[in-house]
Amino acid sequence: MAERIVSWHQAPSRPRFVPPPGAIDAHCHVFGPEAQYPFSAKAKYLPADAGADMLFALRDHLGFARNVIVQASCHGTDNSAMLAAIAQSDGKARGVAVVDPAISEAELEALHLGGIRAVRFNFLKRLVDETPRDRFLEVSRRLPKGWHVVIYFEADILEELRAFIDAIPVPVVIDHMGRPDVTQGPAGAEMVAFRRLLETRADIHFKPTCPDRLDPSGDPWDKFAAAVAPLVADYPDRCIWGTDWPHPNQQAVLPDDGHLVDMIARIAPTADMQRSLLVTNPERLYWAD
Ligand code: 0GY
User: Fold this and answer.
1) Which of 1, 7, 25, 199 has its C-alpha lying 20 to 30 A from 45's C-alpha?
2) Cα–ligand 1 centroid distance for 31 (angstroms)
3) Is residue 9 a part of any domain in this protein?
4) Which atom of ligand 1 is nearest to the CA of 179?
5) For residue 7, is it within any domain?
């Protein structure tokens, strides 16, 4: 068996920042356990097991109350590991599924009952084989009531994706702000392009997340804080936050999750902003019913 990647910090610190009551880690994943929930034959990386028990222990350690689990590419369109995690969460987890666009209405309804409230469209070629955009659009027109679409793309295709994003008939959440270059500061070309996208629709949300992936200057990720804080300040009702644990396929940098949580106070410095980012906004998207 190929060696499995351990992509998470073994002993994350306890953060200094204390999340508000009800706080939601709205971008995290589960891997396996593989013996029960094998990885997809198309997986581009093979991680070690990081199941629900580990995720919920981290949630408690970091001071969060709930999770939104996002289907990771290594599990393809088989959402069963995530659904099992949600089922054992005591109502404290909801999910974002990856589906075959040909999925039936009955299967979508079953996902709704299992706690899913969105589908994810992933455009990263290093993670997934390409799905035609019109197939994504077709499924986005058939989603259960109240669902939205989560999109993961990199900044170099933002302009090219504009028409596609315009055509999505439900709210949109963008993973990691579409991975802009944060090293140029808040006025850098890719940060500005992302702001222009936010101006096109009032129901586009974003995750000001993943300093470990976006800021090559490393922990404490000062460039990320400088570029992203003004964005959160200008769009406090349109952002949600997550750890990204277990940091899929991260090999060079294993971020300390406690330090990631401490970034919250730098990008959302007031109690009101923190409540929007961690409670009100993700609740509206994932716990409306
Ligand atoms: C993330 C980021 C990544 C991976 C995945 O589904 C995935 O495998 O999302 C990545 O490699 O950048 O948000 O988890």
Assistant:
1) 25
2) 12
3) no
4) 12
5) no
Number of separate domains in the chain: 1
Q: Report the CATH number at residue 127.
A: 3.20.20.140
Place of tokens 């730098």: 266
Residues with CB under 6 A from ligand 1: 72-74, 127, 152, 175, 213, 244, 248-249
Taking CA atoms only, the protein residue closest to ligand 1 atom 3 is 248
Considering 234, 244, 272, 289, which one is annotated as catalytic? 244
CB 74 within 8 A of CB 248: yes
Is 104 part of any domain?
A: yes
Relative to the CA of 176, which ligand 1 atom is closest? 13
**Single pTM value for the model:** 0.98
Selection from 61, 89, 65, 75 nearest residue 29 by Cα: 75
Residues 22-41: tens digit of each pLDDT = 999 999 999 999 999 999 99
User: Residues 6 or more apart from 123 whose CB is under 8 A from it?
Assistant: 151, 152, 153, 154, 157, 161
CA-to-CA dists, residue 34 to 48, 49, 128, 266, angstroms = 8, 6, 19, 37
Q: What digits encode the pLDDT tens for the residues 73-125?
A: 999 999 999 999 999 999 999 999 999 999 999 999 999 999 999 999 999 99
Please check whether residue 173 is in contact with residue 151, taking contact to mean a CB–CB distance below 8 angstroms: yes
The structure tokens listed for 274 are 């923190």
Q: Give me the domain span that covers residue 142.
A: 24-286
Hey, whose CA ends up nearest to atom 4 of ligand 1?
Answer: 248
What values do phi and psi take at 194, rounded to 5?
Answer: -70, -40
Question: Is position 244 annotated as part of the catalytic site?
Answer: yes
Closest atom of ligand 1 relative to the 175 alpha carbon: 13
In this structure, the residue with its CA closest to atom 9 of ligand 1 is 72
User: Which alpha helices (H) appear in 168-219, and where do they start and end?
Assistant: 189-200, 211-214
